[in-house]
Structures are given as C-alpha cells and as structure tokens.
Amino acid sequence: MSVCSLYRQKTNNTVDCYTRGFFDLSSGTHGHAILTLQTIATQWLSSSRNMECAQMKKLAWRLRKNNEDSDIIQLADRPKQKPTDSICRVCSKSFSFLPGRKKTCKSCDHAVCSRCCVKKLVCVMAPDQCSILEKKRTFCSRCIHEVVQSDAVAIAREELVTMRHDSDPVEYSL
C-alpha cells in the first residue's frame, strides 16, 4: 500500500487536496485482502480529520497567545477572575433567569450561553512540560469562527519566531 497526498491553497478559505494511492490486493489470502481493504478505508477516512487537526492547532495557539497576553497584563499573584457578564457575548440573551446555562469561553473569557458555545478537544502541554494532555474546552462560536478564518501561515511564522526566541539565549533588538 502506498498513498501520497498533496495540498494546495487556492484561496484564503480553500485548500485543494490531491490524493493518490496504489494497492496490491492480488497477493495473499482472502483474509489478507479483507484486512488490506479495511486499512485502505481507514486511511482514506482519516484524511478528513486533517481539517479538525488544523483547527485544534489554531485553537491551542490562540489559547497560548491569550494566556501569554493575560500574564503580561495581570499580576502574577492575582488569581484569574470569572467573567461577570450578564448577557451572552454571541446572542446577547440575559443569564438572569437561567444562570446554569452560563459558560465561559476559554479563548476570550467572555460569558456565553450553552447554545452559543462549542466544546472542542484541544491538546495542551502538561504542567511537567514532558507530556501532552487532551482537554475538552468550551469556546464561543465567535472565537471558533475567528480561529477558522485566521491565517495559518501567519500563525506558523509567529510560532517559529517565538520558538527561535525562546531557544536562543541571545536577545535581539529591532
């Protein structure tokens, strides 16, 4: 089995995916052919998760960026406060009658109702900095839309600059 996929960005919101595979089902037994077909089907179906993985990476980047920004603004000893918003950031409905429906977006820290939020699986670095944790986080639909529309090249460029700056003990000035 051999599969190759190529991706080409057509517009800001469109990426073409070209995939070609070669499979040899002639050798082996009937059981071997069935197992091979299952593997092929799994391979083809997994390509649809690439978009989900890209969005998860963008969400994780945004969480890191927002966390770094809030660390600069807040004092180190001061605990993070819960939002006191009385209306949903997305639909502007009040929480006065249904306080249990109030959720907090992990990206923007605004209050959102349960209808306007989405739970997404995000991989984050564990506190020991040696392993990765998968966590379900709540995001408002506005932040999800902003992340989906964000420029992946700009994010990758910023990550490379940050990684280079963090690993290099020499300070640069522009």
Automatic annotation (TrEMBL):
SUPFAM superfamilies: FYVE/PHD zinc finger. InterPro entries: Rab4/Rab5_effector, Znf_FYVE-rel, Znf_FYVE_PHD, Znf_RING/FYVE/PHD. Residues 82-148 form the FYVE-type domain. One of its GO terms (molecular function) is zinc ion binding. This is FYVE-type domain-containing protein. Gene3D superfamilies: Zinc/RING finger domain, C3HC4 (zinc finger). Keywords: Metal-binding, Zinc, Zinc-finger. It comes from the Eukaryota.
